[in-house]
Amino acid sequence: MIVDLRSDTVTRPTSAMLEAMASAEVGDDVYGEDPTVNALEAEVAALLGQEAAIFTPTGSMANQIALQLLVPRGDELLADAKSHVVNFEMGAAAALGGVSSRTFSTPGSRLDVAAIEPMINRPNPYVTTTRAVAVENTHNMGGGTVQPLAELKRLRGLADAEGIALHLDGARLWNAHAATGVPLSEYGRLFDTVSVCLSKGLGAPVGSLIATSAERAERGRILRKRLGGGMRQVGYLAAAGRYALANHIERLAEDHARARRLAEALEPCGVCGAAQVETNIVLLRVPQIAKVAEAAAERGVRVSVLGPDWGRLLTHLDVDDAGIDHAIEVLTDLVGE
Ligand SMILES: Cc1ncc(COP(=O)(O)O)c(C=O)c1O
Question: What separation in Å is there between the alpha carbon of 170 and the centre of ligand 1?
Answer without folding.
Answer: 9
